[in-house]
Amino acid sequence: MDSVPLFPEQATAHAEQVDALFFFLLLVSGFFIALIAGLLVYFSIKYRRRSDADRPAATASSLKLELTWFLIPLPIALFIYIWGAQLYFSWARPPDDCMEIYVVGKQWMWKFQHLRGQREINELHVSVDQPVKLTMISQDVIHSFFVPAFRIHQDVLPGRYTTVWFQATKPGKYHLFCSQYCGTDHSRMVGTVIVMEKRDFEIWLAAGGDGSMAAEGRKLFQKLQCVTCHSADARARAPVLEDLFGAAVHLKDGRTVQADDGYLRESILDPDAKIVAGFQSIMPSYKGLIDEEEIAQLTAFIKSLRPGQTPRRNEEAEPPLALPIPRKTP
Amino acid sequence: MSTATLQPPSEESRPAPMEVNYLDVEYGVKSWLLTTDHKRIALLYLISITIMFFLGGAFIAVVRTHLLTPSGALLDADTYNKFFTMHGIIMVFFFLIPAVPAVLGNFLLPMMIGAKDLAFPRLNLLSWYLYMFGAAFTLWAVLSGGVDTGWTFYTPYSTASSHTNVIPAALGIFITGFSSILTGLNFIVTTHRMRAPGLTWFRLPLMVWSLYATSIIMLLGTPVLACTILLLAIERTLGIGIFDPALGGDPILFQHLFWFYSHPAVYIMILPGMGVISEVIPCFSRKNIYGYSFVAFSSVAIAVFGFLVWGHHMFVAGQSVFAAMVFSLLSYLVAIPSAIKVFTWTATLYKGSIAFDTPMLYAFGFIAMFTVGGLTGLFLAALGLNVHVHDTYFVIAHFHFIMVGGMVMAYMSGLHFWWPKMTGRMYPEGWGRLAALIIFVGFVLTFLPQFVVGYLGMPRRSHHYAPEFQVLNVMSTAGASILSVGYVLPLVYLIWSLGYGKLAGPNPWKATGLEWQTPSPPPPDNFAVTPTVTEAPYQYAKGVNVVG
Hints:
The complex is a heterodimer of chains A (330) and B (548). By secondary structure, chain A is α+β, with helices and mostly antiparallel strands. In chain A, 33% of the residues lie in helices and 19% in strands. In chain A, the strands form 3 sheets. In chain A, strands 3-2-1-5-8 form a 5-stranded mixed β-sheet, with helices on one face. Chain A has a 5-stranded mixed β-sheet with strand order 4-10-9-6-7. Chain A is elongated and about 100 Å long. Chain A starts with 12 loop residues before the first helix and ends in a 26-residue tail after the last helix. Helices cover 65% and strands 0% of the residues of chain B. Chain B is built from 15 helices and no strands. Chain B is globular. The interface between A and B is large, with 87 and 93 residues.
């Protein structure tokens, strides 16, 4: 990084597009500032008061002029609006071939989990030219994930996933900031995004990590006794989770929801919120028994689950952590 | 606006020296603390908000000094967080919002419409006491340890995480809010019911239009803030889940409620300033205002549209793409009436006779700074671009251009313009111009670098920052020290002028407007005879009864 940069690095194609709009706006603003300032100076000189007896003639206003300065800014404003909205769409819609990474923000650090199992704190390794989608959640207050060189920014909320995506085009190290004030060490909640060449990244990815997130999730699935009910066999008392992710789920109350990260997380922490049609509300809440990183692992496991892959129920395993509490059905 | 008989008022109409004015009609502390005279209450507000302004300024002076080095020169993180929070709370709620309406508006509204007082004089005094009570609450919160949530009080930080005096500070704002509500109510009723004979809506000075528009926002918006603060206090004290997801609440709900008030509040701050500029420009260019009805209606349009754009503070907060699109579009639409105002003020100068007294210098400063602030608003309202600059110094620079470059300059302009009316004395013109120049230079040097450092990516509320941002931060701090000199100067010479300033006479600027047709300082009842209005305002130029 230069000693005194005046303009941020561009490390994504999106950054270049955002900057194009920025420069266009600078141009428009420059024009209007020059116009207004120019007129102020010109009028100030030309029409300065020469004698205390000056009494200029009144000017009647012209509707034409009034309409002109109403109708000229309007299309310019709408043009900028559409341009800005288009960029927003591309920021909000990740492409299909994204590599997924789970992010947990907490006072005052960033934790990352790669699907292959690597975990990092305040450092995020990614590969150049690979679209990356971050699924983010906070463990406490609101944080905001901000990488200026990518021109992306997304608040990280407690209790709800938000996502953001990018595709770095230039290897290098880039600032990661928390931009939403989050308490004492808010400004120390910073990190580095390390964009690596594809091959280097593969090596890095292969080097670390014990098991993949899905494998960790599988262990949890057994340890937490999820498998007891979600057993995918004749004794199952709960829905089969195979091929669930992304599918439409019909609920008891007649609604249909899509099984995404948010739905799975909610079903683990607050099972009664959405009950699948044909099932009883017998699942206990796992709130307090599982942290955000483990939820992400379980989700990764469920995502990976294809027909026939549900683990066998292990009869020798310990009983469930919390016994299912029978509830009255309304 | 002038009456048929007084055109233009001149030195001859200076009152006999024996006449009683509102300042010497009574003496003693009690006569001030129990007064119901809108002019005296205006002075009470003037003193109170001036104290708050310098207090808020002192906090930020320390913060800016701290930011001279990347790792921070002065404060530990917790203290730093408290300082910027208290700067924000004091400046927004205890200076910017009351400044023009409660000081200049209080003083001028009855005089501009030819009335003896506001519709509810005792309510007006109550408003001041509520303001003081709220301010005392907040000051107590500050002195007994401070508060560190930022002026925005975002949840769940403010309800679940902060260990500072959130509740007292928030309650101070809650109480002061009622001062705003009552002032708004008082102004609306006064404007409807107390206008002098002949003073139709389209003969009103534009200052009255903007105060009216402001009052609507105060009356309708402030209760939402009050509810929000109550909900916050309930969650923090009783643990009832409203905003905190851990308790089953929704943190975004807080942001919606907060900005539903706090965005219109921006217009509470700027609209009266626009009113001041609409008075000063015609006077010092001796022209009728160009496009009177456009300016008047643009104030109302801003007040109405201002209520519909709050979501533009939340483009990266997790609201839906559709909501963001609607809020962005509406934000562009609200920019249009503001642009119209800038064009109109500029056009008013055309073929005028322009004098460069201090109020006019500030008015020029206002137009320039407001234009920059407004145009950078277009950057922020552009969705894709907002994603990058959100919560950076770019935003800080933008709203300081509007609030300090715009609103504070307008306030200074108005304060100098009506100072002779309020005190009967002229301020020293040379010092006035010098201070205006210093403020202009200091302001630009403080806030222009912040646009650059913001686009580079420096997040706001940073106790620490990346080393490459240092040069721009040093520039900004240098500017702030110039700015502070610029603000202390008027404090000194205005106080000096109370005893030593030239006697002003009723109308030193040869201005139209009813307030100039009565002695300075005005008598307790403002006018000896209720004036009758026969023509449109701003009859400065040749050619009778030109409606703009």
